[in-house]
Amino acid sequence: MAQQRKTGLGKGLSALLNDNEDIRREPQNGPVSEDRINRSLGSVNPIKIEDIEVNPFQPRTEFDSQALEELAESIRLQGLIQPITVRRMSNNSYQLISGERRLRASKLAGLVEIPAYVRSANDQQMLEMALIENIQRENLNAIEVALSFQRMIDECNLKQEELGERVSKNRSTVTNYLRLLRLPPSIQASIRDGKISMGHARALVNVAEVEKQLFIHQEIIKKGLSVRKVEELVRMLNTDDKSNNQKKNTHPKSFQFQKIEDDLATKFATRVKLSVAADKSKGSIQIPFNSEDDLNRILELLDW
């Protein structure tokens, strides 16, 4: 079973669902036999809303109340067009896999029953399905995406490359989202609330000192700085820092070694310090990390 799931994971959410295309819709009256449970998996069934419990693995934390009301009104007029997805817990008990927004709106609309796909999934698959389904939403903010990525890495025991395959994103995109979680909580909150953009945040990640990150963040909020302006400010600060470091260094690095240092910083997504002796016969490379997770990320890049 585990072998089959691993094979299909790179195909996204649909590959995680163990559907049987030949399954027919089953009536809900009367006792449910084990055979009927198995045959109902993969079909669309009307299920009582009161029999559905929410997904404990739901990564989405906020639902727009006005949007829910608008969806509820649409459901009152036209019914629910897209079924939710659940897994059967017992004969009359189900757990939501995806579609919590539709479920909430259906409750507001006063529905008693809701159409649902019935799936067979263990907790690992439930988590992956919920995370992938939410990541693929266009209105998910960058911090929610980053937290979902981190949960998939931590709780599903994935490497960044494997994660990228599951969500159909390249590794650099995954890395850029994960780097947002290294920012101070106040800046993460601004990203979540839409006060600053993903572009602003990516520029701030390249600032080594938290104090400077917070200063630039406040300037963005107060002055409405564009992403380009912030990138220029970050470059200027980093240039000043390099200049000051070179003044302290008796033996400034050559262009060749400076390029190596810059290339390493790009590879590891953190500032790397390359120290070289005057005769270039020896030296050292320092790769700083900000947390245990950051260290594991660097070790992964080193194939440790």
UniProtKB/TrEMBL annotation:
What InterPro entries does this protein map onto?
Answer: Chromosome_partition/occlusion, HTH_ParB/Spo0J, ParB/RepB/Spo0J, ParB/Sulfiredoxin_sf, ParB_dimer_C, ParB_N
Q: Where is the signal peptide?
A: none
One of the record's GO cellular component terms: chromosome
SMART domains xrefs? ParB (SM00470)
Q: Which family does it belong to?
A: Belongs to the ParB family.
| Record-linked Pfam families | HTH_ParB (PF17762), ParB_C (PF23552), ParB_N (PF02195)
As recorded in UniProt, coiled-coil segments are none
Question: Which stretches are tagged as biased composition: Basic and acidic residues?
Answer: 21-38
Task: Write out the GO MF terms.
Answer: DNA binding
Report what the protein is called. ParB family chromosome partitioning protein
Q: Name one GO biological process term.
A: positive regulation of sporulation resulting in formation of a cellular spore
Q: Which UniProt keywords apply?
A: Chromosome partition, DNA-binding
What species does this protein belong to? Albibacterium bauzanense
- The ParB-like N-terminal domain sits at 45-135
Residue span of region Disordered? 1-39
